[in-house]
Amino acid sequence: LEPYRCARDDYKDDGSNILLDANENAFGPPIPGNYLPRDATTNGTTNGTGTSAGGPQIDFLSLHRYPDPHQLELKQLLCNLRTTHAHTTKTLTPDNLFVGVGSDEAIDALLRCFCVPGRDRIVVCPPTYGMYSVSAHVNDVGLVKVPLLSAPTFAVDTDAVCAALSDDSNHVKLVYLCSPGNPTGALLAKEDVQRILEHPTWNGVVVLDEAYIDFAPDEASLAEWATEWPNLVVMQTLSKGFGMAGIRLGAVFASPAIAGLLNNMKAPYNIPSPTSALATYALSANGLAITRGNKARILDQRDRLLVELPRIPGVGRLRGGVCSNFLLFEMLDAQGRPDNATALAVYERLAETKGVVVRFRGKEHGCLGCLRITIGTKEEVTRFLEALELTLAEVR
Ligand code: PMP
Fold first, then answer.
1. pLDDT tens-digit profile of 308-342?
2. How much is the ipTM here?
3. Whose Cα sits closest to atom 1 in ligand 1?
4. Where is the domain boundary, 283, 303, 331?
5. What is the DSSP string of 152-169?
6. Cis before residue 338, ω within 30 degrees of 0?
7. Does 117 reside within a domain?
């Protein structure tokens, strides 16, 4: 595949060139104060725009230009973030990275990169994130479903996955694993991931989705394994730990060969410049410090929920792990049994009469009678606990 090449691959936008190559509008976006091309700003005719003091500087005056197609600075910051040398002495470099419009772009891009429509299949391990199978269907790629082992560990059934991979007639090209899992909140065992990576005859790629890794114990991420395993892809995102779902920034750590394939096939300017400016700020020392503070607040509320939820009549066991920014809990019927109908009724009543929206994850999602509860602020958690207690009393 010949990647798309633009004139900026040859001639950088260094401020000295007159750029008439890419059909841009030199007057910029229709935002008051930002109409004029950049050279006018040096005369003080427009205001350079940033957010509050010390915050990210978004260069609105450059919005008439396409963004950087390579995002090397941002990629280096992502490498620094995940370089712990906890798992290997090798160091991640920007060659190990693809950045996408959320991890959702990566989920789809990997399918398009590795699977032949109408023939190939992927392994998914339900209960898991729904986009793996949605994207597979869109791309006419089949599914081999290998359910996770039972709650609360929700470990991956490595024997069954490996058996599926050993059968060439399955045409499996990718295995999508999620750690910490959604909706399980459980971290996969490193040994299990390694066993699949070491499959002796299978030639495909293991995709490890670490969307929630920032809520897991320090150094749980296996992103650095991408320096050693040519058949591993680790997906991460700024949507969760960094609280920036709106900017749509996902990262893939992989061998330079795989990262190169994804970079060659992506749309040339997939990351908007405001997104990379905000992401760069989030990964600066200041951004990281704020993120650490917010993480501590979320984990405090997680601890609180683990204590207070089981005290509410009608709340059953925690199912799954405690490694993400949500918890999976059973709802019980009047006889004290986990019950789908109760969970569904609570879910609906909570939203409709108390204005609290959680996620129903029932039998059909592999979690009989469960609700998935995202951990909010202290005030939100207080309100949720009160509303849940009332609602359970009403429906049981
Ligand atoms: N993976 C998992 C496991 C998720 O739960 C989500 C979002 N709900 C995503 C990926 C998508 O993340 P992004 O916002 O980066 O597209």
1. 999 999 999 999 999 999 999 999 999 999 999 99
2. 0.99
3. 211
4. 283
5. TT----HHHHHHHHH-GG
6. no
7. yes
